[in-house]
Amino acid sequence: MAEFMFDRPEYYTNRECSWLAFNSRVLSEARDKSLPLLERLKFLSITASNLDEFFMIRVASLKDMVHAKYTKKDIAGMTPQEQLAVIGEKAHELVASQYSTYNRSLLPLMKQSGIEVVTEHEKMTKKQKEYADQYFHDNVYPVLTPMAMDPSRPFPLVRNKTLNIGALISKKGEKGKAEFATVQVPSVLPRIVRLPDTDEGHKCVILLEQLIERNIDALFLNYNVVAACPYRIMRNADLSYDEDEAADLLKEIEKQLKKRQWGEVIRLEIEEKMDPKLLKILKAEFAVKDEDIYKINGPLDLTFLMKLYGLEGMDEYRYSSYKPQPVPGLQDGEDIFTQIRKRDILLHHPYMTFEPVVQFVKQAAADPDVLAIKQTLYRVSGNSPIVAALAQAAENGKQVSVLVELKARFDEENNIIWAKMLEKAGCHVIYGLLGLKTHSKITLVVRREEDGIRRYVHLGTGNYNDSTAKLYTDCGILTCSEQIGEDATAVFNMLSGYSEPKHWNRLVLAPIWMRSRFMHLIERETQHAKAGEPARIIAKMNSLCDKEIIAALYEASAAGVQIDLIIRGICCLKTGIARISENIRVRSIVGNFLEHARIFYFQNGGDEEFYMASADWMPRNLDKRVEILFPVESQELREQVRHILQIQLEDNVKAHVLQPDGTYEKIDKRGKLLLCAQDYFCEEAVRTAQVESEVQKSHVFVPAEAMDE
Amino acid sequence: MAVKYFAAIGIGSTVTDMKIFEWGGRKPAREVENVSTRMNLGLDVYQTGRIGSRHVEELCTVLRSFRQIMQGYKVDAYRICATSAFRESRNMLILRDYVEKQTGLRIEVLSNSEQRFMDYKSIASVSSEFETIIQNAAAIVDIGSSSMQISLFDKDKLITTQNIRIGSVTTREHLAPLMKNSEHFEKMVVELLNHELAGFAKLYQKDRQIKNLIVIGGNLLELMRQYRSESREITAVTKNQFQEIYENVIGLNQDEISERFHISFDQTGVMVPSAIYCRALMENLGAETLWLPDYSICDGMAYDYGVKNGYIQNSHNFEEDIIAAARSIAKRYKCSQAHIRNLEEIALLVFDRMKKIHGMGKRERLLLQISIILHNCGKFISLEDVSECAFNIIMATEIIGLSHAEREMIAYTVKFNTSRFLSYEELSVSTALTKSQYMAVAKMTAILRMVNALDRTHQQKCKNVTVTLREHELKLTVASQADLSLEIGTFQEKAEFFEEIFHVHPVFKQRKQI
Question: Does residue A439 carry a catalytic annotation?
């Protein structure tokens, strides 16, 4: 340890840079010619919404730091100011790359495939123009609210993330200074307007702002419109809750939501062609600096592409949607508790269906022997069957405790609605612990059976959201292990405000115990390596940016521990540093499904340990949230988990490998058997389900025969 | 047997907790729920003499939610015991009534000796190791916020239990203003305690070396966490290990302790005074191992309930402890052991034969036995005013495991052995005993008076007594060659009262062997 300092800033990558690199990996999917067209549009759209969120949270908070003259350096030794400079540069590159992908690859390809996006309204055919004007008058015009600015009217409120058209107007017949006016492109109307097909039968669409631009004169009747151009702003949206003062957390969040539209402007996007005078006004009024202005060659806000993804009649340009398969060994129709009593069950979503989790709560709600159901809800889908089942359970007289995490970013409004509804149904709703987000995903069902109380627990790596469970890869287990059951009870007691238990059997919780447990597990491998035993760590997660953990991994690597990391997003660890991280390999899988599971493997001198968790190796997960790390104990399940890790490590299609210079590169496929982990799991799940259903169907009576001699 | 559920709630000085137990399930006995919440009622009572209204409301809220949990499990029975903070709160009865009405739950307030006994049962019930520890001289010390309770064991039996009125919070509050620095504080605390312990040692410890010190209270377990081991039911810390931690902790303030030992701040308040006490105790008693059991008073309640309902076997005879404690009191007041044994034998025989007539139960049998053990202690003070002296001694001596009322019953039984039996109207002027408790006193007195006559001379002439009950006649037959004239004379005198109470005529017969 004395020999090397493992925590030198030069051994770490700045997390924002690493995040931008991740978004580039997503963009590379949009650029991947082997993908169907609409899938590529989807990935491009994702990079756009990702970038929006990144600005609103990360960039905004760095800006706040700069304002507050906070100069503390990050993990890589950069001040907030320095980070903003680098981010600005890289974000501009990323945007340029997004639009070159859009303009140079995707637009032409769309045209080839029979979808035309009419980029300028002037390019519409006569028939289309007629249609468009009619559409404008019938649907758009009535909802437009143009606003002008002059000495008597101040600059209007422009809402966060909305698309607007700025214009310079001058009174007809008067020679004077042009005035500024703006109109919001209504978010209540679809951004994409379908036009009549071309004569060749191509589907044609145009963006709503084009229609407004085309008819802008109609908005300012006594004026000449000198110039008009779309723009969009991004405001600081990082919410900071003052939990000590907020008597009622719910109210505080409602208040904050109203305030959110008023944040400082941190990014201004304009179309390249914007009139310099118009830009000057926007720049002054929004108080943005040059480096925060993004001049864009194409339509603003590419998230509209997600809508194109759903275009009907274009199935050949999409992956056929994958249907999650039944969980092996779990029979439909049979009581789920009986099945859990037989053995622990591993769920691997979305390859396997999320239905057993829903069933778990549903059956518990109806089961007369069930005394109580307790669950943490972080992000729930609209019309969640789980929420409905919980409400039903309460009405059936069960004790239902639900922890609704109000602080799930951007989902607050949604969560408040569920919370109120559950309370009404008679559930005991807990709004989390002060100062801590409850990120753990755990459900506990307490059942009074003939031979006493038995507890059934579901533990997962992903949220209880039946919609995202079709898109995110997550793992979960269903068990009735007594020790885990006891711990689960203690978790909910703790979340209800009772004292923490004196000791935990199997579960490890953040923010108190998890960090030290991980440190211990890593250090234990280091000790094994030093003792000359084989030592290995495999960890799969979304992000790795905790300094202490990374330093421990470096130390482990230096001692000879073989470390494989499967990290989808941010990774502040660097590979290939001589004598520090030569034994560490990092790969990132970016595919059709969002990699979301957290799995940890420690070789432990042959006495292997497998864990799964709701937490990443990030300071916020380890120190500021309630998270659960749980062991995978049944031998059968451990083999399944080992298999999952194995396949992910063998992926050579969607995996990007982190290079010593901080870039990610795909694996050279020449001469290799191609393996895409996500496809592999899909096929495997289908195959297993088929075999099972055949076994179930066939009743073959096997005659007993004498054994072979 | 169907599976049974029992909820136990303890309202303690710093913690209010609930445990729910299951019997007859997959395991014979299992704890299925354990919730606790920190509420420093003790500090309130110490500072203001009562539990503050904020805490009263909080307590009601907690009990209501415990009640909900209990209902969730559909428990068959529950018991709630409140200990010192609640007991010592001013207007305790009003407080109890309020909390009971607010929560719809019934609360039992334990006397000091009942509380200690419950603690002791709790420790014994969570650990089989306890039995081994008390084979040799051992002490259980409860470091409370305003007092310290020391219970001494030897050869598996409880010798005495004493309350010393200095505790961790009182020390902190009294001495903190006087202290110059942390070393000075330590010195003051040790001086204060040594004085008390010297008195204790002279009276009770004598020349025993008490190798095992069991400490409860004072939050020391958290501090010694590193010595907790999976293989041990009770955390054991050697003298040297303790010394090491002691030196690390002694100069620290609360913040530093919290930081360094990862202990939540609100638990650190009493740790330094407790650690100082603990060290002083170890030195004074000659302790070599410090035992820190992890238990809740709920465990003792569950044990009681389980034994009473036959769900669990009585592993340790706790009644024997109460009797042992009484015997050691008798010994201190130089009562004749032979005389006592002789009477006990006869009296319990009479009690058992007369069961149908007197209708008393196991508990009264125990009280009668203790009355006999202590009936002569007054002589230690004065030969003239024996009954009054005995009464005062018993009322002033804590007997572990007995409630205040039970002790009073014993005191009156002993008093009436030699003085005029008072009517309830006369007695109720100066006692809170209920009519049924008074009746028990009357019955026990009748038995005590009569059997006491049989050893009038304290020479144990009446051995091998047989007792038979026929119709309205109780025949005591004694095989003896001795001259029993004196005994027979006294017997006749005392028999009158016996007959008045039971409507049974006692007959004394001597059978001389040829």
Answer: yes
